[in-house]
Design goal:
The chain is α/β, with parallel strands linked by helices. The chain has a single domain (about 5-145, about 155-190, about 225-230), classed as Vaccinia Virus protein VP39 (Rossmann fold, 3-Layer(aba) Sandwich), CATH 3.40.50.150. About 40% of the residues lie in helices and about 20% in strands. It has a 7-stranded mixed sheet, with helices on both faces. Helix 3 links the parallel strand 1 (about 40-45) and strand 2. The radius of gyration is 17 Å and the shape is globular.
Length: about 230
Amino acid sequence: MGYFDHFAKSKSTRFGQILDDYTIEKEFRIITRFMYNPEVEILEIGPGKGGLAKKFIEMGYQNYDVVELNVLMRNNIARVVRKTKNYEIPELKEKDNSYDAIICCDVFEHLNDTKEAKLFISEVHRVLRNEGLIIIVSPDYLDWKRDFFNCDFSHSNITSVRRTIQLFYNNNIATIYYNYFYSYFEGIVGKILNATVKIITFFIKGNSLDSKLYKLRLTFLRRFIIVGRKLQ
């Protein structure tokens, strides 16, 4: 078995795939609010099955590189992006001031601890060009609670908006945007769905890798997107 094969080989339900597609569309729209030129150079860390990377390429962002440890997912995305790389964070094997944006979706929480999180954000600051963007999407521990650790053996870095803003601030990165969402949904609709699914699945322990009800629960737990800009 390779690194993260349990995810690489997992299959979404049709309903789950529809929600994933809508969520990727939402993330793309949010991120590109702050990108004024499709010629920017982007590094995505942990693209997984490549949904967001494919969206960027489809919309004309050709200077798109990825770092992916899993060989199955790396080979899959290699046909789409400019360059694929294979190394493990928190250190970034990139030159100083070499990218305009770094995207990290559902990866930040997989760092081993706060020490690694601090190192990673300092590395982001080093690699970004002046006024470059860091985009992080992660589960909100304040909502996930025990599911934060139970859903994935490698969830070790506790993530929340406040903790991430503090890390940004201490590395001379200004927070310019953040928002919460529940799968594709946000606001009061998202909160209602979140609460309803929690009630429906309260008895699910999540011990089975194939439990559709547990996956449904995880789908509607609260996540956040946060965008920071490197200060000169």
